[in-house]
Amino acid sequence: MKFLLVFDFDHTIVDENSDTWIVKCAPEKKLPNGLRNSYRPGHWTEYMGRVFVYLGDNGVKEDEMKRTMTTIPFTAGMVDLLGFVGENKELFDCIIVSDSNTVFIDWILKAADFHKVFDEVFTNPAAFSSTGYLTVQNFHAHHCEKCPKNLCKRKVLKEFLDKQLERGVSYTQIVYIGDGGNDLCPVMFLKKDDTAMPRHGYTLEKKISQLAQDLSPVECSVLVWSSAIDIMSYLKLLIKE
């Protein structure tokens, strides 16, 4: 009996958007209008690439970026929740599927000593170039119309489950924890025994409600959370069953 926990990262594990948090490193803690206005919907990763070039051009170094990123606050109750999951790893496999990047997530999890809680992290690959600039790439290519160009979380989840099945691992239940519009696609892939946990007041909750109003509700159970303590309470019930 094993459960799979799938976490989004921004506004779910951490209470901010890690990509916009890095702007604290920029001169005057802001980006020039031209750069800010260069974002095109669905092309966030390319936009972040330009932000990183701007930071590099302004002499922002890796250690300063790391110091800034490790001050990002965790969501209320999240430290307790991840501690609980870490203590019960024999019952929970745990992955992150995020539109952030490998460098930011790695820094934040390691600084708080949570990297061992997660079995895998699926996010946009990032690295520092020989000139000290942070670079980021799209996670993968996909054909999903609903998702941003760089990442379809449903595809990631499906491929992970297929790989686990090949290893002989199947899950009693999948619990998907997220907040954003790009979490809807994987939630719609969940089955009736699974649970989606959208964050209260965020886009994912609104989109799931809208589907129910349109009489095409998601197949899985839906439990809304405000604090990660709500998630922990649910997981404690699961393992009692």
TrEMBL record:
GO terms for molecular function: metal ion binding; phosphatase activity. The active site is at D8 (nucleophile), D10 (proton donor). Pfam families: Put_Phosphatase. Signal peptide: none annotated. Keywords: Hydrolase, Magnesium, Metal-binding. Belongs to the HAD-like hydrolase superfamily. PHOSPHO family. This is PHOP2 phosphatase. It comes from Sagittarius serpentarius (Secretary bird).
